[in-house]
Amino acid sequence: ATVQAQPGLDAREWDEAAYRRGILRERDLSCRTLFRAVFYDQRDEPDPDVLLAAASSDGSLASFSLSSCIASSASAHAAPQIQPAAAALVDPVCIVQAHSGPVYDAKFYNDPIQPLLFSCGDDGHIRGWRWHEMQSCLLPLSLQGDHVEPILDLVNPQHEGPWGARSPIPENNAIAISKQDGSLFAAAGDACAYCWDVESGKCKMTFKGHTDYLHSIAVREANHQVVTGSEDGTARIWDCRSGKCTQTIRPVQNKKTEGSWVGCIAIDASESWLVLGTSSS
Length: 281
Description:
Layout: H1 16-31, E1 34-40, E2 51-56, E3 60-65, H2 66-78, H3 84-87, E4 94-97, E5 103-109, E6 116-121, E7 125-130, H4 131-135, E8 152-155, E9 172-177, E10 183-188, E11 192-197, E12 203-208, E13 214-220, E14 225-230, E15 235-239, E16 245-249, E17 262-267, E18 274-278
Antiparallel strand pairs: 1-2, 2-3, 3-4, 5-6, 6-7, 7-8, 9-10, 10-11, 11-12, 13-14, 14-15, 15-16, 17-18
WD repeats: 207-248
Keywords: Repeat, WD repeat
Family: Belongs to the WD repeat THOC6 family.
């Protein structure tokens, strides 16, 4: 007699590998932090799909198709019996293990011939990636990670201590790019900001003056200035030609919030207005 399997107890089609991958993915997603997401402006590209680059705490850079994300969200709403948390998950187009620690910031350098994606993180490195090379990868996601090599790898300088000792490599918390000359600016954990020449890979200038590590940085193109925000509670405006601080701004004057820091900086399109985000409520 043929024994029929009871519904729900037939393990002949069980996929152990898929089950393990699902467990690992859920665990990874539950403890991962997304530090930055940037859109790639591809108005001149033949493919109109909008792409998004995401920098995460696991050291990875991942690109996503915005149309796929929207389609997945629409499917989740159309099928209420599916749990939204599971239905909304979208696989990236490409994933690169960019840094050995968390990736704190990412910025696009929109070269018309070869657009680059720059990333920085806790390991003190700034790396440049060929964006088109990332998107054209044909490997399955399970084999991606180390399949793309950076076109540029910059490392923050170490400071000399007594008896020739060197300090640890300071982390990079934020980066900004000058569209005028292609310089790259980094806000580092040693209370300094660095200006790098993308073509030569050399540090052109160091901006010193803050008393605590830097959270953010922005470029003011028209005036050849860069603005930094720090844990010391101030924002400073620097002259990119001389490297000197031209103005110090303390946005929070209340004594009750003396420990407030400047966490983010934004400059409007006309470069006439500066907005500072602080830790005080």
